[in-house]
Task: inverse folding
């Protein structure tokens, strides 16, 4: 497998060096692996800190900036960061108004963020946490580590980030974040496996004529394998899985997300099918985002996240944001 | 230590006094074993996880070896606490907190004894393994590192070699299990038929422990740094 890397052990710091060069509005600590908006801490504002394994870019470093995250902690590829990173990031961005940790539901992320919260609280930083667990492919959660956190993370970070930017206090930012997390549902499809730098080859074997339905974002196989389908059939299967889990009671924001190896040409075509499928089922979609936002290295495929919104959440979604990967308004 | 003597196993179990230098040598041996087996761990992890367990354990143990060689903590307990803290700070993922907690809690349970015997080590390890179970919310049969650690603990009063064999067998016994914890749990039925990478790395740590004791006994070496 051909990859643009020097050595597998240095892919994360190498990427951070490049990110620092491209985004002077961010302050990037390459060795400690912390990405911070340069004007942090912002006086009186609750700070949002997130993080997780690398390999999901632009999540999370690409979402650092006004209106979204104050800091991100990238771990090794597909490996959660360590508590020291998160605690240091929390201390760097806390203005005294407290810090919200946005955590995806994976065993490693949960354990490390829990430890980090203890460390930060020892330093006098008030910490609240929200767990994102939006993946409907995980159905028998009594027998698993629970639902995985995937595309819903973007909605939580954007909407809670807008609330924090408005000066909302920590307890309320936390409850907004939890509302959004509860309102999100995701479902992913893999057309190929991904290639981790450490392994240098595909993480699982997926023949050309087949696809995986219900995948996570770490190259883990999905809940079922089927013969290849058309874009419209994939959209119907995805939308059905999402709506079966949580029948919509109002309008939804839609994220049609690429896993890293699928071109926008295909993603836009797929979005047309997703919009058709939602329309046929009577679901209103006031806003849609299409692109590679929560990726899985070079995996081909896509995921769809729906986030049910009321007027307040929609207003925060529309609020200005200025980050490397998400930017609108003002 | 004397009150533990009665709890000791059969007569042939070697009661090697284990000091700080022994535990440093063990960690060095563990790092070397994981280095050798890193590709295998990663291969096992790619079947049911995300293909990085070898790389993660290698990174953590390399940092542990530098930390304990640099600081040279004076007691077995202090060596293990430092090793555990270093793992938490360098590994990430689930392995970092879980292995870090195992070593840190075991070390704390050893208190500041300058040397420990097998019975005392077994008692402390029990505390460490319990802490791992609690942190990960896992029990025997969930297809995790506990499936190697628990049998090893049970065999420990027969000596370190027996513990290492039990851990190895425990790791092998995870093959037919269905994962209920960690990332492998998302595979459900499809996790069956693959050996758990965490149980495998736990078995490697016990193998290194037994080897280190044998080497120490062969050298007649008690505590040269």
Result:
């Amino acid at each position: 497998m051909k990859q643009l890397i020097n050595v597998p052990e240095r892919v994360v710091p190498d990427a951070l060096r490049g990110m620092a060069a491209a985004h002077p509005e961010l302050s990037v600590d390459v060795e400690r692996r912390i990405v911070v908006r340069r004007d942090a801490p912002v006086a009186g504002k609750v700070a949002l800190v997130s993080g997780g394994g690398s390999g999901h870019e632009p999540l999370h470093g690409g979402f650092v900036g006004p209106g979204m995250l104050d800091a991100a902690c990238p771990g090794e590829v597909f490996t959660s960061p360590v508590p020291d990173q998160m605690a240091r990031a929390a201390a760097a961005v806390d203005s005294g108004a407290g810090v919200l940790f946005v955590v995806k539901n994976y065993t490693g992320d949960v354990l490390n963020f829990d430890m980090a919260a203890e460390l930060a609280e020892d330093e006098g930083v008030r910490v609240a946490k929200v767990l994102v667990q939006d993946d409907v492919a995980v159905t028998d959660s009594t027998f698993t580590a629970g639902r995985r956190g995937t595309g819903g993370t973007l909605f939580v970070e954007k909407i809670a980030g807008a609330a924090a930017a408005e000066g909302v206090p920590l307890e309320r930012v936390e409850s907004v974040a939890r509302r959004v997390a509860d309102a999100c549902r995701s479902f992913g499809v893999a057309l190929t496996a991904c290639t981790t730098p450490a392994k240098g080859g595909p993480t699982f074997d997926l023949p050309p004529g087949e696809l995986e339905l219900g995948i996570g974002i770490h190259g883990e196989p999905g809940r079922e394998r089927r013969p290849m389908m058309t874009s419209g059939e994939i959209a119907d299967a995805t939308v059905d899985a999402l709506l079966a889990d949580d029948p919509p009671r109002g309008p939804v924001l839609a994220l049609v997300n690429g896993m890293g190896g699928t071109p926008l040409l295909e993603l836009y075509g797929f979005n047309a099918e997703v919009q058709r499928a939602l329309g046929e089922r009577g679901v209103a979609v006031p806003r849609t985002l299409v692109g590679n936002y929560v990726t899985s290295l070079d995996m081909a495929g896509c995921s769809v996240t729906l986030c049910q919104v009321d007027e307040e959440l929609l207003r925060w979604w529309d609020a200005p944001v200025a980050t490397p990967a998400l930017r609108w308004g003002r | 230590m004397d009150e533990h003597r009665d709890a000791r196993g059969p007569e042939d179990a070697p009661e090697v006094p284990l000091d700080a230098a022994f535990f440093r040598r063990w960690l060095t041996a563990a790092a070397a074993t994981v280095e050798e087996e890193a590709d295998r761990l990663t291969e096992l992890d790619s079947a049911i996880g995300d293909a990085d367990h070898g790389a993660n354990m290698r990174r953590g143990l390399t940092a542990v070896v530098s930390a304990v060689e640099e600081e040279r903590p004076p007691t077995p307990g202090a060596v293990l606490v430092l090793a555990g803290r270093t793992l938490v700070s360098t590994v990430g993922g689930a392995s970092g907190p879980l292995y870090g907690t195992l070593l840190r809690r075991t070390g704390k349970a050893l208190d500041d004894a300058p040397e420990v015997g097998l019975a005392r080590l077994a008692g402390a390890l029990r505390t460490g393994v319990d802490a791992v179970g609690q942190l990960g919310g896992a029990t025997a049969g969930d297809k995790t590192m506990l499936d190697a650690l628990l049998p090893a603990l049970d065999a420990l009063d027969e000596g370190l070699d027996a513990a290492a064999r039990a851990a190895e067998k425990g790791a092998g016994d995870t093959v037919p299990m269905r994962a209920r914890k960690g990332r492998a749990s998302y595979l459900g039925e499809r996790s069956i038929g693959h050996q758990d990478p965490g149980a495998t790395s736990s078995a490697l740590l016990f193998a290194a422990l037994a080897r280190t004791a044998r080497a120490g006994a062969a050298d007649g070496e008690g505590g040269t740094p």
